[in-house]
Specification:
Number of helices: 4
Shape: globular
Order of helices and strands: HHHEEEEEEEHEE
Helix content: 10-25%
Strand order of the largest sheet: 3-9-8-5-6
Number of strands: 9
Distance between the termini: 48 Å
Length: 209
């Protein structure tokens, strides 16, 4: 299976039909990846796919996070203006590119609605049903889960994906616990094409001062 993915990806535009047939075969044969990740009860300790499973050559090139609360709109993180995440753990090696740490501070916990803008480029294949499932945990407890889908992406295109997150209401006790435990709030972001897992990113959050 893995060799066939690499062979199809290396052939480029001339083999789109073969790629479509391969995707159909995998959809029929494989278990439901979205159902599997939605059943996870805690954050993952390892990545659930390989870097080379991204046979569509999807690449994230810019990212912005902002508050959408009425009267309190503001940008919280913006790669294009030079904002940088915190350094990842040193033992990730080549996986460091898909692990990120955000030090948001305690004020982030008071926002109710968050908007993100993700810019990405696509390779030679058209993409159908690009889906992201993002699950947030504190320690081993699920806090919330989000699910977004982009129906179609043209080949060799640059795209903007706007997503709106309604955060769960947190008690003062929850906020205090999150503030006092840096990097123990974690998330997994799973990316699918036609229900097949092609990318997995992990993140940790610090809400302390």
């Amino acid at each position: 299976r893995d060799r066939r993915i690499r062979d199809l990806a290396s052939l480029g535009n001339c083999n789109r039909q073969a790629m479509a047939e391969y995707e159909e075969e995998q959809a029929e044969a494989a278990p439901s990846w979205p159902d599997y990740v939605n059943a996870l009860t805690g954050p993952t300790e390892n990545f659930m796919c390989r870097l080379e499973d991204n046979v569509y050559d999807l690449k994230f090139v810019d990212f912005k996070i902002r508050s959408l609360d009425e009267g309190n709109e503001c940008t919280l993180f913006d790669l294009s203006r030079g904002d940088s995440p915190s350094p990842p753990p040193p033992d990730l090696g080549s996986d460091a590119a898909r692990f990120i740490r955000y030090h948001f501070g305690p004020h982030f916990l008071n926002y109710n609605t968050i908007g993100t803008t993700l810019e990405f480029v696509n390779g030679a294949y058209e993409v159908h049903n690009f889906r992201m499932i993002e699950r947030h945990y504190f320690r081993d407890q699920l806090i919330t889960s989000y699910d977004f889908t982009m129906p179609f992406i043209m080949p060799n295109s640059r795209n903007t994906w706007e997503m709106i997150y309604t955060k769960p209401e947190l008690t003062d006790e929850w906020k205090e616990a999150l503030m006092s435990a840096p990097w123990e709030a974690r998330s997994d972001s799973f990316y699918f094409v036609n229900e097949q897992l092609i990318m997995h990113n992990r993140a940790e959050y610090n809400y302390g001062y």
